[in-house]
Write a structure and sequence with these properties.
Layout: H1 3-18, H2 21-42, E1 48-50, E2 53-54, H3 55-75, H4 84-106, E3 109-112, E4 115-118, H5 123-142, H6 148-160, H7 172-183, H8 185-188, H9 202-218, H10 220-231, H11 237-251, H12 253-259, H13 264-283, H14 296-302, H15 306-311, H16 321-336, H17 346-368, H18 376-394, H19 400-431, H20 434-437, H21 441-500, H22 507-518, H23 522-530, H24 534-558, H25 564-568, H26 592-617, H27 629-643, H28 645-657, H29 664-669, H30 673-678, H31 683-711
Antiparallel strand pairs: 1-2, 1-3, 3-4
Length: 714
Amino acid sequence: FLPLPSIAGFYFARFFTKKSLPSYFAFVVLGSLMVAWFVMHNFWDLNIWLAGMSLKSFCKLIMGSVILALTVPGLTLLPSKLHFLIEVGLISHALLLSYIENRFFSYSSIYYYGFEEDVMYPSYMVIFTTFLGLALVRKLSADHRIGPKAVWVLTCLYSSKLAMLVIASKSVVWSSAILLLAISPPLLLYKDRFRSASKMKAWQGYVHAGVVALSVWFCRETIFEALQWWNGRAPSDGLLLGFCIVLTGLACVPIVALHFSHVLPAKRCLVLIVATGLLFILMQPPIPLSLTYRSELIRAARESADDISIYGFVASKPTWPSWLLIAAILLTLAAVTSIIPIKYIVELRTFYSIAMGIALGIYISAEYFLQAAVLHALIVVTMVCTSVFVVFTHFPSASSTKLLPWVFALLVALFPVTYLLEGQMRIKNILGDGVIGEMEEEDKKLTTLLAVEGARTSLLGLYAAIFMLIALEIKFELASLMREKAVERGGIRQSRSGQSSSGTFPPRMRSMQHRLASNAPTFTIKRMAAEGAWMPSVGNVATVMCFAICLILNVNLTGGSNRAIFFLAPILLLLNQDSDFIAGFGDKQRYFPVTVVISGYLVLTTLFSIWEDVWQGNAGWGQLQIGGPDWFFAVKNVALLVLTFPSHILFNRFIWSYRKQNDAMPLLAVPLNLPSILITDVLKIKILGLLGIVYSLAQYLISRQQYISGLKYI
């Protein structure tokens, strides 16, 4: 067999000297025969299993790879009409290389005559061959040896190999290649990226999106294995479907961003698709078996007994209400993005608000109040009223401004009814239960009280959120109306100035000013004055009720935390200017309720703490001995509490009026707070003292800044 290398070398040298293409292919044939003889003579009959396959099969792959590697350089010398053979050869070689490396990386073991040891295909080899292939593709593309479609396919094939370094799956290379081939055409096959018009026609966009969806469906097993590796157990059908939807939406981003950036419905649909996938991931709703497609791999993972042996039998919680929450959120997004035109159709707006309320009401009832079946109707009615009020406040109709106050009144009336009825129904259900009837009397009472307390706390949280939402919506609408009123005044003032100087303006400019003045939103301002006068009062009632409910929740959940008032008091910033609520209250006084409530809350809770400590230490106030330790404790702390009043009174008066006062007054009140900080036995008095010092310094600095600002106008 020795003449073969000599003859092959002769033809190879002849190719270099005379550039003879037949000489090169003769060298390829002889070189392939040499490689085949060497492999068959040395490795063909060995009983070795390498990377999950026999050594004989691996030798076949190696010989095929060598033949392709020897053939492709000669194909570059062919005429340009036959350059497609280069592309076919390069793609075939890339597929073969990807298959070999995937086998080596996924099946990292070698078997030889009963001995088995681990063999790790190095990761740097995968990285090296990947970047070497990408560099070769770039060079051939720059020399115009291969076309853009071949560049696209080769880039996807070589890049997909990097996925095996991240995800431990046997099919991750092919799944990644399919995904890249589906995602990359908008990036690689359409080069005119900076034109304003779409480079892709509408039907092409639909086809690309469909191909992306099909490729994601084809890769569902790889996604399943990745999620199983990440979670340590088989993911649910909802989680798997959510990731598939999110991946589909993200894969369609290049299509919309590069080719349909001027099409607003495409962007809205893309946002809706991604949001749907995220909701499926977070909620993981149950999917009927008739709508799921489970392959053998997924079915085997589902039927594994490891979860039962490790976790045991876990009582499943009904998760069907999550579909209602997903539907409600998607309806909201569809309305916000104007996919559902509720802004222009009153009937559709009504149907939308009622559907939203019913969906949220059933979800809340089934998720948090499952045992109190009688209250489901009240909760659904409450959510329907809330949805109708919010939707029609944001998008009012001709008659909604007259009906919305009654809707809010019904909502307020439902609050105490639902709160009281929940306790009564829960007590009857628990006392009438046969299982509970066998318990001891004390355990029965304790269980009943805990159940009622927990359910009522949940109801308080629900109504606090409802009133907060209503207060925010009204605050937003009133701010919008005030801006429109300012625009109207500016338009009228501009039209008057235009009329006074109309002789100096050309006729076209005068007609434009007249058109702007006539288009001012006078209907909105008139509606606010005539029919929307209830909005500030309703907003204030909702704000006060939300704040009061939050105080009750603070007492129930934290026992009356001192720090909670600093987080709850800013709720009062949602109060609106209303002469019926507080005379003289306006935008300048918006911080006054916050500061006065903080001071008042701390003072009242301090007095209650002192009374509680003295009452628990004695049988009552009648048993309190004058001059005794409890009497001294009460008098001392009350006196120290009174010393903190001047700073708080001065600061709250300043916040109400914002008038400059004597700069010495706040500073003189600062020393009065020091005994309250150093001597008192009650923590809240120390907080009041520190707060008084902060108030005094803040008042002094603000007054000083006002004085300096006023000097600039003199």
